[in-house]
Amino acid sequence: MDKHHSQLALAKCSRHQRYNEWVFRDVPSDIMIVVDGGTFSLHKFPLVSRSGRIRKLVAGHRDSDISMIELLSLPGGAESFELAAKFCYGVNFEITAANVAQLCCVSDYLEMTDEYSKNNLGSRAEEYLEVVVSKNLEMCVEVLKQCENLLPLADELKIVIRCIDAIASKACVEQIASSFSRLEYSSSGRLHMNRQAKCEGDWWIEDLSVLRIDLYQRVITAMKCRGVRPESIAASLVNYAQKELTKKSTSWNQSTQPKVDVVSGSNDHEKVVVETIVSLMPVEKLVVPITFLFGLLRSAVMLDCTVACRLDLERRIGSQLDIATLDDLLIPSFHNAGETLFDVDTVHRILVSFSQQEDSDEDMDDVSVFESDSPTSPSQTALFKVAKLVDNYLAEIAPDANLKLNKFIAIAESLPAHARTIHDGLYRAIDVYLKAHQALSDPDRRRLCKLIDFQKLSQESGAHAAQNERLPLQSIVQVLYFEQMRLRNALFCSYPDDDHKPMHQSWRINSGAVSAAMSPRDNYASLRRENKELKLELARMRMRLNDLEKDHVCMKKNMEKSNSRRFMSTFTKKIGKLNIFGHSSSRESSSPSKRSQVTDSKLTERT
Predict the structure, then answer these.
(1) How many Å apart are CA 332 and CA 298, to the nearest integer?
(2) CA-based angle 73:76:79, to the nearest 5?
(3) For a surface tag, which of 16, 50, 81, 210 has the fewest beta carbons within 10 Å of its beta carbon?
């Protein structure tokens, strides 16, 4: 016999139970209620006195004397109906955040309103929801958690929206209170925000991580509308994603080797989580950690998320690529077994997005180096960092036997030419590629080596390139030519008065002339690149000129000191030849050499 077949009036009664408990203690049941998950043997009178739905069902079968009612669609199943039956029998139980949503839904389904009985279950549950739950953020989260199994009725009764609004309001209030607690007066008496103090207004982040993704999305959307800080939103997204995506997938952990088959049957759920979190991320730059973005991108690639989701992640990563690391860029290839070990196409799109954002930033705020004391602007600094990162990435993927030449060149050319002030890193990556792909044809080798500006190689790299047999002969000739030109320039700087002149006529041997049939757009892009190169070269010349001026000032001071010593020595000798203290006789005046000898002998005796 089912455990719910026993009469509830006899289950948990005590001496102080209400009238109905004692009345129906010895009365046999006259109706059976069948719900999803259980069957209850009860009495008609306490049920019809509180429930309008059961009253209508019993009244509709008065002639046949109904003895069983099926309520299979009752929200919450047997657990909810047991609480409603207890209320009908007058059994005391506590309304809590864990059952108030069930009570609201079951009271609505059974029509337990004040129309049929004063202070009925529906009004009691609503009062608790408004007076108690809505004032407490943790209780609202708990009620939302219970509503997951009560949809869509909980939504129709506005239980969900009321809890969401209460959570968003409480989080906003907590944030404002936390901001006021960090206000303090400085030594000058001015009020300012203490940035180093820990923000204690985000304690709700951990509470929200228990919600299902659809309800979590609605809560975060409401918080953004209420003005909760983007940093708090981002922290909540990171916490939620780490809990949901690290349960069965190791792709989130960069320290382990990712595998294709680590995701089980929960692929659809994890895919929805990734796409939802990406759609909820704040638009502000640098709010979401770039390591988290790369983790999401790995999951999006592995789970085959939508193109819009992946492009959004790539765009966000491209906006802060200068703070990325080499490990971040090493995204494994999950689906194409015969392709490269790492996902080169995704990295290429990220680099293209970064270059496009750099161009748009320069169009909006084109700051010339003439107006700045620093040789590089912040955008140029980011460009230099990304160029170094790309060179290291190329060196890392170069040994892959499946890496096609076109993809390698596409990665190398994704950044503008002025991004690399030194081509040592690019030369090293190309050398590794040539070593790993020895079957490369001579035209392909020459095409690959055209990426290198041999004039931008350091002395050590130039010496290595001059003896590198893997390079085409044309490239080795260029290296030797530029090394000779560098030597002549060094000699010219050492002997500026000579007629040796540095050779600037052949700076770009491998670049070729600009085609006359170039389109206006390409011509404009070429002019912009040349303009940037000229600015960088001007900055280098300015720094060189400052060094020369310092050397000139030092040389001038040294020359002045040397001339001063020489002048004093000559002046002393001339004074010694003159007699300015007495009248000399004709004999003395006629023999100055003799007088000088006497004076020198006296000085010698004194010493």
Answers:
(1) 8
(2) 120
(3) 16
Provide the pLDDT for residue 516.
Answer: 39
For residues 95 and 124, is the Cβ–Cβ distance under 8 A? yes
The CB density around residue 447, as the number of other CB atoms within 10 Å, is 15
Rounded-to-integer distance, Cα 355 and Cα 390, Å = 12
5 residue type, one letter: H
pTM: 0.71
Evaluate if residue 250 carries a pLDDT over 50: no
Packed helices 307-319 and 344-364: angle between N→C axes, nearest 10 degrees: 60
Q: pLDDT tens across 359-394, in order?
A: 665 555 444 433 443 444 447 889 999 999 999 999
What pLDDT is attached to residue 555? 77
Task: State the DSSP H helix or E strand holding residue 513, giving kind and residue range, or none if neither.
Answer: none
Total Cβ atoms within 10 A of residue 435: 12
Is the pLDDT at 465 greater than 70, yes or no? yes
Question: Comparing C-alpha atoms, which of 491, 525, 527, 530 is closest to residue 507?
Answer: 530
Rounded mean pLDDT of the chain?
A: 77
Provide the b/e sequence for 306-335 (b: ≥16 CB within 10 Å): eeebbebbbebbbbbbbebeeebbbbbbbe
Q: Which two tokens stand for residue 594?
A: 């003799």
* φ, ψ of residue 35 in degrees (nearest 5): -125, 170
Buried b (16+ CB within 10 A) or exposed e, 400-416: beebeeebbbbbbebbb
Beta-bridged to residue 193, according to DSSP, are 183
Residue 414 confidence (pLDDT) above 60: yes
Sign of CA dihedral 231, 235, 236, 241: positive
Distance, in Å, from the CA atom of 476 to the CA atom of 359, rounded to the nearest integer, reads 34
Q: In what order do the strands lie in the sheet with 38-42?
A: 38-42, 31-35, 68-71
Question: Given a cut of 80, is residue 239 above it in pLDDT?
Answer: yes
Helix/strand/coil for 38 = strand
Residue type, position 382, single letter: A
Would you state the pLDDT for residue 313?
96
Q: What is the mean pLDDT of residues 276-281?
A: 96
Q: What is the pLDDT confidence band of residue 163, given thresholds at 50, 70 and 90?
A: very high
Number of Cα atoms under 13 Å in the Cβ half of residue 500: 14
CA distance 49 to 52: 8
Residue 367 Cα distances to 140, 319, 370, 371, angstroms = 52, 19, 8, 7
3-state secondary structure string, 40-109? EEECHHHHHHHCHHHHHHHHHCCCCCCCEEEECCCCCHHHHHHHHHHHHHCCCCCCCCCCHHHHHHHHHH
Dihedral sign (CA 117, 118, 123, 124): negative
Task: Judge whether 286 and 320 are in contact, CB under 8 Å.
Answer: yes
- Does position 308 have pLDDT exceeding 60, yes or no? yes
Cα 7–chain centre separation: 60
Find the mean pLDDT for residues 430-445.
Answer: 93
C-alpha distances in angstroms, 205 versus 211, 216, 353? 11, 11, 32
Task: Return the percentage of the chain with pLDDT > 70, whole number.
Answer: 67
